[in-house]
């Protein structure tokens, strides 16, 4: 005789293969993996909200540096020029390339910044032991749904490929904004490693 199924509200879906699991209460350092695909589902960690919140603040600072500091400088035959990401985007704001420059700013600057701001809004009260703020569920859902459109990492990879192609035509040096982008990618990876989405949703639901 088959055992009765647990209530639907107690089931957790794997974010990769959508398999449903009934997860018991986990200890501080315990993890839960999907029985079908082996993906990590829940990784509760002590002070994880505070860690993710700190990384989100760090990412916001790095994002500001990456946008407004010089990104790279190019020199050839005695002439040189250094530009920031914001200056390059604004250079095309009065031409037919204005929609393209706006789209670039959106996917590499605005969306990542909004996602980090949304994480701060969601986790600030939770990390301090308070109930979630109003509309925290909506904000965190927007943070998750906008992730595929946040392309700061793609921008750095595309820049590196372009620099390889023009490296023989001019002398190129990276500015502080380029390294800020690289640090931003590392911070984003660490943020994803520490963040347990199911724990955040559970905390929001209890609030």
UniProtKB/TrEMBL annotation:
Transmembrane segments annotated in the record for this chain: 49-76, 96-127, 172-190
Xref: InterPro entries: PqiA-like
Keyword annotations: Membrane, Transmembrane, Transmembrane helix
Protein name as annotated: Paraquat-inducible protein A
Organism: Paenirhodobacter populi
């Amino acid at each position: 005789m088959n055992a009765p199924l647990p209530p639907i509200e107690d089931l957790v879906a794997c974010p990769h293969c959508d398999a449903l699991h009934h997860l018991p209460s986990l200890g501080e350092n315990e993890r839960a993996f999907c029985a079908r695909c082996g993906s990590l589902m829940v990784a509760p960690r002590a002070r994880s909200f505070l860690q993710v919140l700190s990384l989100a603040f760090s990412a916001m600072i790095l994002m500001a540096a990456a946008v407004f500091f010089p990104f790279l400088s190019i020199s050839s035959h005695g002439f040189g020029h250094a530009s920031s990401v914001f200056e390059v985007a604004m250079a095309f704001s009065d031409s037919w390339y204005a929609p393209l420059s706006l789209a670039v700013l959106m996917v590499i600057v605005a969306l990542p910044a909004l996602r980090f701001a949304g994480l701060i809004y969601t986790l600030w009260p939770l990390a301090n032991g308070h109930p979630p703020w109003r509309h925290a569920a909506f904000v965190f859902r927007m943070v998750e749904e906008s992730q595929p459109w946040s392309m700061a990492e793609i921008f750095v990879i595309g820049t590196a490929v372009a620099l390889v192609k023009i490296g023989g035509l001019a002398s190129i040096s990276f500015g502080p904004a380029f390294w800020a982008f690289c640090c931003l990618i590392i911070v984003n990876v660490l943020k994803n490693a520490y963040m347990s989405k199911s724990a955040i949703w559970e905390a929001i639901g209890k609030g």
